[in-house]
Structures are given as C-alpha cells and as structure tokens.
Write a structure and sequence with these properties.
Elements (H helix, E strand, L loop, with lengths): L3 E6 L3 H11 L5 E6 L4 H7 L4 E4 L7 H5 L4 E6 L4 H9 L5 E3 L4 H12 L3 H4 L8 H13 L6 E4 L6 H10 L8 E5 L5 H9 L16 H4 L4 E5 L6 H13 L1 E2 L8 E2 L3 E6 L3 H6 L5 H7 L2 E4 L10 H12 L9 H9 L5 H15 L30 E2 L2 E2 L7 H22 L4 H8 L3 H13 L9
Parallel strand pairs: 1-2, 1-3, 3-4, 4-5, 6-11, 6-12, 7-8, 8-11
Antiparallel strand pairs: 9-10, 13-14
Length: 452
C-alpha cells in the first residue's frame, strides 16, 4: 500500500522532532518539510494528505487555497490564543507538542489512512437484523427527515450515515461531518455555524460553518449528545428554521441540509440526565436507527473481516481459513467493527505470503497483544530462535500503564461526579485531552460516568 505524505511547514528542529515521534506511531506515512515560501512549489510536486503549519500567520492565504489536504497547526504553545489563531486561518485544529501528541495521532490516523471500518463501500449484511436495517436505509434515503443513529462506539454509525447519503437524491451534494465531542466549545460553535468578519479578535474574514458547507447535501453530527446544552438551543433553531446565524453575524442564512445525528449514549437516559434537550431529541429522532454491537450479530463477523481484509491488502488476500474464522467467532468484540479492522490490519502485516488464506497464526486479538510473544495466536520467532517472554517486557509494560491510567481516570471521574472540567484539573490535563481519553475508554467498553 502507498504511503501518505504529511507536509510540515516552517517547523524548528525541536518541533520537527516532536512530529516525527508522533508519526512513528502511525503506519505507512512519510514526512516532508518545506518553508512557507516553498509551499506552493511543494504542492505542485506532491499531493500531501495533511499539511501541518508551525506558523500559520506566515503562510499566504493564496497558498492555502491551493491545498486540498487537511490543515492543522502545530506548535510548542498550548495557549488558547493558538487555538483561536488556527481557527481564524481556517485550520481544522491546533496541537501543542509534545503535550498533545496523542490527540495529534488520533486526528491524523483517519486522514492519512481512513478508518477501515468506514471504507467498506456497502453495508456487509448477513445477520437478519442488519439486513432489516439495510432495507430500512433504502426506504428512508429519499426523505429529508433527520435520522438519529445510536449504538456502541465502533459499530459503524458513520458507515450507515454515508450509506444514507449515497442512496439519497443528495448523493451528488456535499457530505460534511463534525465530531461534536472532539472540539472545544468555542471552536465547535464556530465550526457548526461559521463566523462573521470581526466576530472575535483576529477574525479577519468570514468563514462558513458546516451547515453552510453541507448546503444541498448531508451533515453528520457525530456524538451530538456531547454538545453543551446551551448550544443545543441554537442547533434546535437551525434545524427548525432551516437557517443559521454565524457568530457575529446580523443576518441568518438559509440552508438546505439533511441532518444525521449519532450517539453512543442511551438517548432516554441522556434526556433524563440533562445531557440532551428533550425538544432537540424529538427534533432529531424522526427516524431512529440502532445498530446492534458486533457480538450480537455473529453472522456478520467473518464477512466483515474478509471485506476488510480485501480492502486492506489491495485485493491480494481474500479469505480466512477455518482456524482464523473460529478465532474471530469466539471473540466478544468490545471494540466492534473498529477493533475488527485493527485485527485485520495486523493479519495483513503478519500473513505468510506463501499461504493463499490468512491463518489463525496471523489473527492477533487485543488480548494477545498484552504479551504477543506468548500469544495463543502462535509463537513468534526470529530466524530459528524463539524470543523468550522475559526479553520482551515492553508490550506488557505498555498494557499495564494503559490499564493503570484508565483506572485513575475512571476513579477521578466518579469522585468528581462526572464533572469533566473538575476531573481534568485534578488529573492535570486539559479538558480536550480528557475528552479524547474518555472517547477511547468508551471504545473499549468502559461505562464512563455521565458528565455532571
């Protein structure tokens, strides 16, 4: 598979080294660097998937307008001024390194290598429940009514949203998505509704929000229950009136947008606990769709795995042998399709090219990764000599540290009554970092306390 290019612009040596350390955790990427003056020439030579700007103010807007890549700022400064500066320049995000290395890695992965669970071009449906959902998607695709998709993290809610768009009369229009849980409140409002020139310090020009960008198409509000309650009122008005008013704007703008919302929460509980306005719930929940977890639709596991296998291998690998299929069926998949995609990516890497099928020895589940050198997936050897457990403590150490971190975060959340800001202060991390860590906990099946 080809490597995605990440272009780093005007970074000093220390910042460049911090970016290199982040990229070391992401497979199949390569880093190129250039100065702000050479950006246009670099874009002519290569087509980067991502451009990281160390000094956005030094880059001309004409140069940025020629870029089709995802844009973000990186710096050594974690101040809010840097986040606002990134937003003013139309960038998607700002990351202070090394403090936000995990957040940058999480932001980069779907942009340099789209989540395999989202790449499946059609719904892979073998189970009766998913066949029923597939038929229902076709029936409602032509409607303009809102759809509320629920289910555990990783079940494929965005896949379903993209299928709704692809089967609708709006399929030639834009499909815009925004992760409502991953953005600071101030940036979320501007990203949704846009802002006028002069709306805040440094807003030198007007910027359209996601609603305007999705005009004539579909807007996906991912994890909509994480939007602050007071901002939900503005969202409700936009849905009801079919118009948005940018920050600092004086005149609302009409939009024609089909909205799809997703959440991994129990919606009734979210309303009862005050996380979701009741009027917004009923406005979004015109067509409710609940995707069951992968463990409840065992018939889909192997077909999904083989579809992912073909996509990840570029068609070179097609099927799993009986042993590999058995291992997949016996697993309970707490991470759902996203976890299955990770397992298939490992399988492609570990596969013996002499074997036309993927065997059980190449199927490493998350539990095996605690100490892969002694996994039931098969003993790993280098040449003719086995690698003893006691010479490879690093995977075990990393797993132990991750477990301890998860336990600390869960305890602090409980002690703070679920109040995110208080928990972040006690942990000594930013609220944004805490949001990313909570999202990962949910992906791994943790019942995270509701926010207070």
């Amino acid at each position: 598979m080809s490597r995605a290019t990440i272009l780093l612009v005007d970074a000093e040596p220390e910042l460049r080294e911090a970016v290199v350390q982040v990229l070391a955790t992401i497979p199949r990427v390569r880093l190129q660097t250039c100065t702000a003056d050479d950006l246009v020439q670099s874009l002519e030579v290569s087509a980067p998937a991502v451009i990281l700007l160390a000094h956005p103010a030094d880059v001309s807007r004409d140069a940025l307008s020629q870029a089709t890549a995802a844009l973000a700022a990186v710096s050594r400064d974690a101040s809010q001024d840097q986040e606002l500066a990134a937003m003013r320049h139309g960038l998607e995000a700002h990351f202070a390194l090394p403090r936000m290395a995990d957040e940058l890695a999480g932001w980069l992965r779907p942009r340099v290598r789209p989540d395999p669970s989202l790449e499946v071009p059609a719904l892979v449906t073998r189970s009766p429940v998913m066949r029923g959902i597939d038929r229902f998607v076709t029936r409602i695709a032509g409607s303009t009514a809102t759809v509320f998709v629920t289910g555990e993290s990783g079940v494929g809610k965005e896949v379903l949203a993209r299928q709704l768009h692809a089967r609708s009369p709006r399929r030639r229009g834009p499909f815009e998505a925004i992760n409502c849980a991953a953005l600071p409140e101030a940036m979320l409002e501007a990203m949704l509704f846009g802002h006028a020139k002069g709306a805040f310090t440094g807003a030198v020009e007007a910027r359209p929000g996601k609603f305007v960008r999705a005009d004539g198409g579909t807007l996906l509000l991912d994890e909509v229950t994480e939007i602050p309650v007071h901002l939900q009122a503005k969202l409700l008005r936009a849905l009801q009136e079919r118009e948005v008013e940018p920050l600092g704007g004086r005149r609302p703008q009409r939009v024609d947008v089909r909205v799809i919302a997703t959440s991994n929460r129990d919606l009734r509980a979210a309303v009862a606990e005050g996380h979701l306005r009741e009027d917004l719930y009923y406005r979004l929940n015109v067509f409710p769709l609940c995707i069951p977890p992968l463990r409840e639709r065992a018939e889909d596991i192997v077909p999904l795995a083989e579809a992912l296998l073909r996509r990840l291998s570029g068609g070179q690998l097609q099927t799993l042998d009986d042993g590999a299929q058995r291992r997949l069926r016996e697993h309970d998949w707490p991470g759902n399709v996203r976890e299955l995609a990770n397992v298939m990516e490992r399988a492609v890497t570990l596969h013996d090219n002499a074997d036309p099928q993927v065997s059980a020895e190449s199927v490493w589940l998350d539990a095996d990764m605690v100490n892969p050198w002694s996994t039931g997936a098969g003993e790993v050897t280098t040449g003719a000599q086995s690698i003893p457990d006691d010479e490879n403590p690093t995977p075990m150490l990393e797993q132990t540290l991750q477990t301890q971190e998860s336990r600390v975060i869960m305890n602090v959340l409980r002690e703070s009554g679920g109040r995110r800001k208080e928990a972040a202060d006690r942990l000594g991390i930013s609220p944004r970092t805490l949001r990313y860590k909570i999202a990962r906990l949910r992906e791994h099946g943790f019942a995270v306390p509701a926010s207070g």
